Amino acid sequence: MPAGTQEVPTPLLAAILARLEMAPATPGGVPAWLIDAIGNPLTYDAAAANRKDVCVRVEPALYRRLQAMKERLGLRTTAGAWEYVLRAGLAAAERGIGR
Predict the structure, then answer these.
(1) Quick one: which of 20, 8, 14 has its CA closest to 92?
(2) Do 85 and 54 form a contact (C-beta atoms < 8 A)?
(3) Angle ∠(42,44,49) on CA atoms, nearest 5
(4) N or C: which end of the chain has fewer CB within 10 A?
(5) Degrees (nearest 5) of the Cα angle 45, 14, 52?
(6) Segment 10-57, tens digit of pLDDT
């Protein structure tokens, strides 16, 4: 692993993904702070000079769940699905949800 990188524990990623899978696909019932944090997932894979390429290693079952979520939400890329999970998970963590 390159210097300065850290692995995100697989159980944490699995927990975030599980919460997202339970969330309704429509804005009804989703808190405004979460909608603001997620933004527009259809713009996640747009070309932008400020985006960073990253590498992630996960268990096959977690990857299959991510792909299923990507398809269900109509996201175009796996990178976009990861950004969705990260934005939502980080927003929840910043609010202290899941402690």
Answers:
(1) 20
(2) no
(3) 140
(4) C
(5) 30
(6) 666 666 666 666 554 455 667 788 888 888 888 887 777 888 888 888
